[in-house]
From TrEMBL, chain A:
The lineage of its organism: Bacteria, Pseudomonadati, Pseudomonadota, Alphaproteobacteria, Hyphomicrobiales. This is ABC transporter ATP-binding protein. One of its GO terms (molecular function) is ATP hydrolysis activity. Residues 4-252 form the ABC transporter domain. Keywords: ATP-binding, Nucleotide-binding, Transport. InterPro entries: AAA+_ATPase (IPR003593), ABC_AA/LPS_Transport (IPR051120), ABC_transporter-like_ATP-bd (IPR003439), BCA_ABC_TP_C (IPR032823), P-loop_NTPase (IPR027417). GO terms for cellular component: plasma membrane.
From TrEMBL, chain B:
It comes from the Bacteria. This is Branched-chain amino acid ABC transporter permease. It is a multi-pass membrane protein. Belongs to the ATPase C chain family. The keyword Cell membrane applies. It comes from Chelatococcus reniformis. It is found in: Cell membrane.
């Protein structure tokens, strides 16, 4: 089964072709990695999938349905969650509140009932908390549950952001440079988490990553981009030794 | 040191953290309920005024403190609530219908102006709301048939429970009950999904959006709720000033309301009440001070606004978290005595945000 498919996806900013007609298929329950030098268009592809950018051309198909024109706030409800390259957490809220916001796509809000905090609202809140606690358990975030984000170290923030994405109960998880800013031990933990997310939770992972050690350990499939175009695609080993990829990174 | 040990999710959702906190608030409420037994009518009037300002400040806190949208038109919302309420009373609508209805009307206006303001942030939103304040003032002056034009009209005084509404201690208790209701509603919304969505769009719009928060919907909700609460305060404000005229709801009132939430401490309803207490009591304090100051200073016409400005600057420089921030530090100091560390509240170096899509 194909989870996500991009067909001839393109985004041009004036004359700059940030993404220039790329196509790929992400198989279900796999870890699919985008690599490439700076400015290759990797994050732009993510922003196209989460609908922050409007594609100039091409289509995006998620689980057989066209999502090219879905509004950005509707993406989470359809089962796609993401993290950001430079952490975008809600700084002045606790870890728990951040994770609970991850439940927003499932929190059908009736403002009048919430104003009075009717019993139904409380019942749903408790259900959300149970879901959030499962994620806290999964990522070992217990010690930080009631800490404000502004008081957390960078590494923990990364994990909280991953947790917030998991709280939306996605079927496709977009990770934008999950290992940036992490120390070697934290990166090792990340390897296990990504494998668990794929194998235990059954979530398809699409990530952008620079750390080739991490990429080789977890990826099922690697796609190399340069100047908005696909230059290589295949298993991590094959892509790493592809002459085009070596040229893109080392020049010459 | 006290630690809140939670044994169920309900403990986390409840309005009060633990029994001790609840009992402190109940004790405060008991003192406030008993106040008419000892205080003179003048002080009850001052307290009612603070309660009314508190409701409006709670409304503004929802918008500015929790949703991060600056508003310079809450004086106008207070005015719309007051006028709508007084006009309804004139038409013979009873108090218990007129006050909620005035609140609903103001909420409607808030949603209507919130909608075009959706795309504006920061200083541009401040400008737009400022302009709206002037427009509302203009409407109050020129819609003669309803508002009585520039000269205004006296607010009718309905009877409630057999007493005239402006009698004390009835008015005092009514404003206290109104404040409790406003706090109940505001705290409810903040512990529900809607409240979390508001905080989310304050801190990072792009992340909020990718978590499924529809920005237009929640900004409009925030404007409507905020205006609704402020309009509710307006109904009581109308009785407090007794006579409605357009110049009561000018830009100065909007700035005073903004001052309340900033001085009180953004992001906390308790801060809003601290701020209302502070700004509501300041004119009285300045009046008392005048007696002790040298004649040349005391008779300066700009003394009051000058002091307001000075205090605002002082807070921004030395205590950006406002009175609420000071309160938290004080409380932690006592709960951790003698282990309190000065560096506890030192601002941590924040990480750079280089790639933001706003």
């Amino acid at each position: 089964m194909i989870a996500l498919e991009a067909r001839e996806l393109a985004l041009h900013f004036g004359g700059i072709k940030a993404v220039d007609g790329i196509s790929f298929q992400v198989p279900e329950r796999s870890v699919f990695t985008l690599i490439g030098p700076n400015g290759a268009g990797k994050t732009t592809v993510f922003n196209l999938i989460s609908r922050i950018y409007e594609p100039t051309a091409g289509r995006l198909i998620f689980e057989g349905r066209d999502i090219t024109t879905v509004p950005p706030h509707d993406i989470a409800r359809r089962g796609i969650a993401r993290t950001f390259q430079n952490i975008e957490l809600f700084e002045n809220a606790t870890v728990l509140q951040n994770l609970l916001l991850g439940r927003h796509a499932h929190a059908a809000g009736n403002v009048v009932a919430e104003l009075m905090f009717l019993p139904g609202v409380r019942r749903r809140e408790i259900a959300h908390r149970e879901a959030v606690e499962r994620v806290i358990d999964f990522l070992n975030l217990e010690p930080h549950r009631d800490t404000l984000i502004s008081g957390l170290s960078y590494g923990v923030r990364k994990i909280v952001e991953l947790g917030r994405a998991l709280c939306t109960e996605p079927r496709l998880l977009l990770l934008d440079e999950p290992s940036s800013g992490l120390n070697p031990e934290e990166t090792d933990d990340l390897v296990f988490w990504i494998q668990d997310i794929r194998d235990i939770l059954g979530i398809t992972v699409l990530m952008v990553e620079h750390d080739m050690g991490l990429v080789s350990k977890v990826s099922d499939h690697v796609l190399a981009l340069n100047h908005g175009q696909v230059i290589a695609s295949g298993t991590p080993g094959a892509v790493k030794s592809d002459p085009q990829v070596v040229k893109a990174y080392l020049g010459g | 040191m006290r630690y809140q040990f939670k044994t169920s999710y309900d403990r986390d959702i409840d309005l009060f953290g633990d029994a001790a906190q609840r009992n402190w608030y109940l004790a405060l409420l008991a003192v406030l309920c008993a106040a008419p037994l000892v205080l003179e009518q003048f002080w009850l009037g001052e307290l009612s005024y603070v309660f009314i300002l508190s409701i409006a400040a709670v409304g503004l806190m929802l918008l500015t403190g929790y949703t991060g949208q600056v508003s310079l038109c809450h004086g106008a919302f207070l005015g719309i609530g007051a006028y709508a309420y007084a006009v309804l009373l004139q038409r013979g609508v009873p108090f218990f219908v007129a006050a909620p209805l005035a609140s609903l009307i103001t909420a409607g206006v808030g949603a209507a102006i919130g909608f075009p303001a959706l795309r504006l942030v920061g200083i541009y939103l401040a400008m737009a709301t400022l302009a709206f304040n002037f427009i509302v003032e203009y409407v109050f002056v020129h819609w003669d048939s309803v508002t009585g034009g520039f000269s205004g009209f006296a607010v009718p005084q309905p009877t409630v429970f057999g007493y005239s509404i402006v009698d004390y201690p009835l008015f005092y208790y009514l404003t206290l009950a109104a404040l409790l209701f406003a706090l109940f509603v505001a705290n409810n919304i903040m512990r529900a999904p809607t409240g979390r969505a508001l905080i989310a769009l304050r801190d990072s719009e792009v992340a909020a959006q990718s978590m499924g928060v529809k920005l237009t919907r929640y900004k409009t909700i925030s404007f409507a709720l905020s205006a609704g609460l402020t309009g509710f305060a307006g109904a009581f404000f109308a009785h407090k000033i007794g006579y409605l005229a357009p110049d009561a709801f000018g830009i100065l009132l909007s700035i005073q309301l903004l001052l309340m939430v900033v001085v009180g401490g953004l992001g906390s309803f308790r801060g809003a009440i601290f701020g209302a207490l502070f700004v509501g009591a300041l004119p009285s304090v300045i009046a008392l001070l005048r007696d002790f100051l040298p004649q040349s200073v005391a008779r300066q016409p700009g003394l009051e606004p000058g002091l307001f400005g000075l205090i605002l600057i002082g807070f921004i420089l030395f205590e950006p978290h406002g009175i609420e921030g000071r309160w938290r530090k004080l409380r932690l100091f006592f709960s951790q005595f003698p282990m309190y560390r000065v560096a506890t509240f030192k601002k941590q170096k924040s990480f750079t945000k280089s790639e933001r899509f706003r």
